[in-house]
Amino acid sequence: MKPIYLDHAATTPLHPEVIKQMHLIMQTVFGNPSSIHAYGRKARQVMDEARRVIAESIHANEKDIYFTSGGTEADNLALIGTALANKHKGNHIITTEQEHHAVLHAAEYLEQNGFNITYLPVNENGLVSVESVKQSLTDETILVSVMYVNNETGMIQPIKEIAELLKDHQAYFHTDAVQAYGLIDIHVKDMHIDLLTTSAHKINGPKGIGFLYTAETVQISPLAFGGEQERKRRPGTENIVNVTGFQKAVELMLESKDKNRDMYEDYRTIFLDTLKAEDVSFSINGELRQAVPNIVNLSFPGIHVESFLTNLDLEGIAASSGSACTAGAVDPSHVLVAMYGQDDSRINQSIRFSFGRENNEENIKEAAQRIASIVKRLTK
């Protein structure tokens, strides 16, 4: 029985071209980009080219891209760094109840250090209301942070509308675009996005590398101290190998973005239609018309998520009950709690399936058939 990977929202396999590029840099470039000799200049050239390609992918200026160790560090720098640098303007921050833990735990840290945090609710489809953002704004608000695409449900938030709302307000607007990057066209300047975070390992790039975009006008304090790398905002000798792997992943992503989006739409349709044909009872958490096509979160009445995940694994299906950062935890998904409330049965009956490079029409259909068999067995 061949295993089938349906957990691309957790991480994606390295693209062979990314591996090839990283291996080349490992063999040919080892200098420190901060060194002024030829070895250092060669490494700096690699860094500069990667920064240029990645900046262009979101229509940003090269100097506004800061490489980090991933989405979590970028989110922490965006929230905590911005809050610390702007506390003279106010101490109020707005976010939502369903953010990734990298944002939520950063917000909790700020709350413990004197900042006032508003956690906005979402509706049953997992969408935050633009009106709720408007009503929560005060003269003390210095930052609004709303994720672009939810990592558990795939729901696309009204980012453009929220950013437009903040155009004439002092508050900066940050969006965690980790799950959006590679599927949605992002133009940070036209959309009035002040800070944006991504991670390479969600687009078939290496783990351990991401970036934070900050507009030129954003005041932000570093969270670490040392050398003058990344224009003093993120010190430490740069990871050239991962940076160039990220660059190659972005280049490949840009070439195939539209094709992938259509392909994932087909995969999702095949997946859901096969479950229906197998006469399996399920409901969709969220609204497909307002979601990215590669993530679908389903609730199966009569099953319990932990035993379901165990059986999926035994049948060679890799899926998740929520974000990978909380995998193995018995706590219910905070995203589904935000959508349905603490006592709703769907919280303990839901699984996230996410499609990507490891899939094709055949294994999507086979996966749905195996899943249907497990559901029928568990609900006898």
UniProtKB/TrEMBL annotation:
Matching PROSITE patterns: AA_TRANSFER_CLASS_5
Residue ranges of coiled coil: none
UniProt-recorded Gene Ontology molecular function terms: cysteine desulfurase activity; iron-sulfur cluster binding; metal ion binding
The reaction(s) this protein catalyses: (sulfur carrier)-H + L-cysteine = (sulfur carrier)-SH + L-alanine
Broadest EC class assigned to this enzyme: transferase
Pfam families listed in its UniProt record: Aminotran_5
Top-level taxon in the UniProt lineage: Bacteria
Xref: InterPro entries: Aminotrans_V_dom (IPR000192), Aminotrans_V_PyrdxlP_BS (IPR020578), Cysteine_dSase (IPR016454), PyrdxlP-dep_Trfase (IPR015424), PyrdxlP-dep_Trfase_major (IPR015421), PyrdxlP-dep_Trfase_small (IPR015422)
SUPFAM superfamilies linked to this entry: PLP-dependent transferases
Swiss-Prot/TrEMBL keywords: Iron, Iron-sulfur, Metal-binding, Pyridoxal phosphate, Transferase
Domain Aminotransferase class V: 4-365
Cofactor dependency: pyridoxal 5'-phosphate
Enzyme Commission numbers on file: 2.8.1.7
Keyword Lipid metabolism part of the UniProt annotation: no
NCBIfam families: PRK02948.1
Family label: Belongs to the class-V pyridoxal-phosphate-dependent aminotransferase family. NifS/IscS subfamily.
Protein's UniProt name: cysteine desulfurase
Organism from which the protein derives: Cerasibacillus quisquiliarum
